[in-house]
Design goal:
By secondary structure, this protein is an all-alpha fold. It contains 9 helices and no strands. α3 runs parallel beside α5 and α7 packs parallel to α9. The longest helix is centred in the C-terminal third of the chain and has 13 residues. The protein is elongated, with a radius of gyration of 15 Å. The N and C termini lie far apart (35 Å).
């Protein structure tokens, strides 16, 4: 649990301070990591922030992978797009974020992948594949 004081302190931070904070945050403190990753979203086009968010796309925690892709949504750099393609067979929450990211950047090469998802067992995956 994050205290209100801690929450208020984190949401006021710039990218440099957020990156320092996430490096010193214990891996067991998922709530704090999620908050920091969400706050990094507004800086996600910066190379250093992008690099750090991409590390979280390979986290063991599904929620951190999904949150990192969500934070990278507006970043269409090649490394981000490639990471999203690599995670199209991930957990449902991650796949949804990857589909959103790829659709946001209107990448034509995603169409064959989205067609495949129209037959997915999960209705929510079919939904996201159809609307993108």
């Amino acid at each position: 649990m994050i205290s209100q004081k801690e929450f208020d302190r984190i949401i006021q931070m710039d990218a440099r301070h957020l990156l320092r904070e996430i490096k010193k945050t214990d891996q067991a403190n998922l709530n704090k990591q999620i908050l920091i990753i969400n706050m990094l979203a507004k800086f996600s086009k910066g190379k250093t922030v992008q690099k750090n968010l991409l590390k979280f796309t390979d986290s063991q925690e599904t929620i951190l992978r999904a949150t990192a892709f969500d934070a990278l949504l507006v970043n269409g750099h090649k490394e981000v797009i490639n990471a999203a393609f690599r995670h199209l067979n991930d957990e449902i929450d991650v796949v949804i974020r990857c589909i959103e990211l790829l659709g946001y950047h209107e990448k034509r090469k995603v169409i064959p992948y989205l067609i495949k998802f129209l037959d997915d067992d999960e209705p929510v995956i079919r939904f996201y594949a159809a609307i993108i």
